[in-house]
Write a structure and sequence with these properties.
- It comes from Pluvianellus socialis.
- The protein is of the alpha/beta class.
- It folds into 2 domains: 97 residues, Potassium Channel Kv1.1, Chain A, CATH 3.30.710; 111 residues, Arc Repressor Mutant, subunit A (Orthogonal Bundle).
- Helix content is 38%, strand content 16%.
- It contains 9 helices and 7 strands, in the order E-E-H-H-E-H-H-H-H-H-E-H-E-H-E-E.
- The strands form 2 sheets. Strands 5-4-7-6 form a 4-stranded mixed β-sheet, with helices on one face. It has a 3-stranded mixed β-sheet with strand order 2-1-3.
- The chain is elongated.
- The relative contact order is 0.10.
Length: 243
């Protein structure tokens, strides 16, 4: 017995133009199943999501004939809800923002960037860190030093020198010259021209190293006797715990 076209699995129809598809579309997004309309997916014509369903098929199908998108399916429900009702999500903001960027849904991107979470990260914290010379490179240097010292050890430490002003940078260099340690193993952050203080930068360092999956803590570095300056003025010890 033949099957009517409206009951054929969606994946059987992808050989033709998407204009011939049923207006009802079944999706498999990273293992999560969704059913929506073609018009919902194409609501914002300039978006990458709309392009996926415009003209010739650009997506593979799964074994059941559903269009497959290789992205986290958990957060697609928030994307879909926005397309359906213009409702901006209030949960999982950071993750939904990443998906909005991937699908290039410009109105949603702009509205999410106005949320406190994204605004604080992009406008406040990221703009501050952009004024700290070589910040990202120094984070990677810290990790390399810590990993090099982790052989047969539970913990390894990295000494960090943090200076906010040019004057402090000069004093820090004098202090480094009097330290009984390998100066190449000291990672220097700063100076910078922005409002946040040294404690704010230390929090940022910990936050960004932890975001890479490491367990880390820090404390003021206590120098040996005879040190010319108070060690906590500039130097901090970051402790990596491996197991």
């Amino acid at each position: 017995m033949s099957i009517s076209s409206e009951h054929k699995p969606l994946g059987k129809q992808v050989t033709g133009s998407l204009h011939t598809l049923s207006p009802i579309v079944e999706l498999n997004v990273g293992g999560e199943m969704y059913t929506t309309t073609l018009s919902t997916l194409k609501k914002h014509p300039g978006s990458k999501l709309a392009e996926m369903f415009t003209g010739q098929p650009k997506l593979r199908t799964d074994s059941e004939g559903r269009f497959f998108i290789d992205r986290p399916g958990t957060y697609f429900k928030y994307i879909l809800e926005y397309l359906r009702s213009n409702q901006v999500p209030t949960q999982c903001i950071q993750d939904v923002y990443k998906e909005a960027l991937f699908y290039d849904i410009e109105p949603l991107i702009k509205q999410l960037e106005d949320s406190p979470q994204i605004f604080g990260e992009l406008v406040a914290r990221k703009q501050f860190l952009a004024r700290v010379p070589n910040y990202s490179e120094n984070i990677e240097l810290m990790i390399r030093i810590a990993r090099a010292e982790a052989v047969a050890a539970r913990r390894s430490s990295v000494i960090v020198c943090v200076v906010r002003t040019e004057e402090d940078a000069a004093r820090c260099q004098d202090a480094l010259n009097s330290l009984d340690m390998d100066k190449k193993s000291v990672v220097k952050f700063g100076p910078w021209k922005a409002a946040p203080h040294i404690s704010d930068l230390l929090d940022c360092i910990q936050m960004d190293v932890e975001a890479k999956g490491y367990k880390i803590s820090f404390q003021p570095h206590v120098a040996e006797k005879g040190f010319r300056f108070k060690s906590h003025d500039f130097f901090y010890k970051f402790l990596f715990t491996w197991w």
